[in-house]
Request: fold
Amino acid sequence: MTFEVTILGSNAAVPAFGRHPSAQVLNVNEQCYLIDCGEGTQIRMNDFNIRRHRINQIFISHLHGDHIFGLIGLLTSYSLGQRTEKMDVFGPAGIQELLDVQLKYSQSHLTYPLNVHVVDPTESALIFSDKNVSVTTIPLDHRIPACGYLFREKDRLLNIIPEKLEAYGIDFKQIRDIKNGEKGISAAGKEIDNHLLTLPPYITRTFAYCSDTAYKPDIIPILENIDLLYHEATFNEEKSENAVATKHSTARQAAMIARGANVKKLLIGHFSSRYHDLNVLLHEASAIFNNTELAIEGKTFSVELRRMNSLKN
Ligand SMILES: [Zn+2]
Reply:
């Protein structure tokens, strides 16, 4: 029942101070989702023991090189490994052409179906869903079309307590109905209240990735009460003019988004190469939103599994 994000790269623009361009892997119940794919992503996957065959979906925020220049290398490496399983890639318009040109002139042939899905970065829409998560776009404000992604774990049913079914002599054919909240019927034909047979479901967990973007408070309603928010914090307030000019955010602004949305935890990243010591950014964000951490490469941030509070005793 894993829900955790591993940082593969968190520097802006160019590699610096041992930091690499943007990439993250979200692991939900051992299915992995890659978010952005800057240069060096597959090398970082090796460094941090990411099982790349568990990735079947890749979500690209925008087409600036520090978010996508690792993608063609990764996709062609899958072919060298004789991958046959299909791969879905999501990203703004132009992504298909970008990949087609690289595949064409490098004469690379993929051994698996590659499905490229163009997303509209101007709206928040459900773009993907599987048994683990649903993914919704978050419109961002950058120099070229860019969107974030909100990952929401799928709702879970009530959890059966097998020993209780046995104790009441309840037929296992009733499991589906009991998971949906129905009463059970015991071997003696007696109705057994659902709360005696089940534990409350787990609360669905959420993670949002917002990079790159200028300060954009109108995304706050999309992020309300989520567990974990990664928001870019390229500069500190002292360099807020640079942030405005390049359509990036300051650490303070990232924290204002986190506070406004009442998220549980904020990760800041996409650090400008001007900062060797990142504490200046951490301190600035923490002053506004206390539960802030730096998205340090190689670190994994987990969201705990919690059960809903039962209203029954
Ligand atoms: Zn960018």
